[in-house]
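# step 3/5: fold
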Amino acid sequence: LGQYCRFVGMDLATVVVEGKEQARERGFGMLEADCGKSLGDIALARSDHAAARRLYEEALPLYRSVGSVMGEANCFQRLGEIALRRSDHAAARARYEEAIRRNPDDANSHIGLGALLADQGDMTGAVTEFQTGARLAPGDSRPHVGTAWVYSRQNKDTLAIAALQTAIRINPKDPQAYLMLVEAFQRTGDAA
């Protein structure tokens, strides 16, 4: 859809707003909620946290009304991400935990909670959440990089190196993993 909008010279948000309005008029609650969440994603990508938060919070009751637990969980995960970006750790934790309660298989919420716990110094909890995220999203390098970050802070460079090598196998284009790997090798005295 984004490529089509660029091709015809339209703003994606304008198209999604129109879709949301059409869905509301026709009584398609799930589609209206999805459009609202998509508008929240657009606002979040533009770093408009206030608009993104409002849009996700508007989508929540719509998802609830159509019984979409996954939709609710996705909104809570994104609200957690916004709170984390704003350094509101208590709100971020509450949102991530709510997302996980609603959808225990939400890898993004486990990864986000892992990052939050690491920031707060709960390294054991962080590793647990990152490992859960890795199990749920085996093609995602982020939980391995997060685990490596925790291990490097604990001076467990051998474990950090192993986690980073896994991250690089998953995503050979992850510059953060390479940088962290070089740093870990330097700390151990091994050649990178």
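# step 4/5: annotate
The two ends are 43 Å apart (CA to CA).
# step 5/5: archive (pending)
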